Amino acid sequence: MTGDGSKGQRGLFLARERYRQRRLRDGARMLPIIGFILWLLPMLWVRDEGDTGGLAGTVVYVFVVWMVLITVAFVVARRIDPTDDVEPPPTREGSD
Fold it and tell me: Is pTM, for the whole model, over 0.85?
């Protein structure tokens, strides 16, 4: 008898590489959403009326975020294994 209260039930086991592939694909799906949120941040910055000096910093911020997103997307795309069938296609029952 184990002291963890599991009563002999084992947790779901996924192979380590398959788990990493799923997380990479999840990260790739979240990248556009994260990028959109990062691009909206300059709209929340408070500026004084007539202050145009912050515009250059905003433009630099937008392009830096853009370059970081491109780099992260490149790295994630290179690490995803295209031959790994993470999610098998749904089977249709009754079709012969």
Answer: no
Residues in the chain: 96
DSSP for 10-53, please give it: PPP---HHHHHHHHHHHHHHHHHHHHHHHHHHHHHS---TT--T
The first and second tokens of residue 61, run together, are: 């911020």
Q: Is the pLDDT of residue 4 over 60?
A: no
CA–CA dist 13, 30 (Å, integer): 24
Residue pLDDT, tens place only, 37-87: 999 998 887 777 766 667 788 889 999 999 999 999 999 989 888 886 655
The token pair at 56 is 């250059």
In the DSSP assignment, the letter for residue 9 is P
Query: What is the Cα–Cα distance from 64 to 86, expressed in whole angstroms?
Result: 33
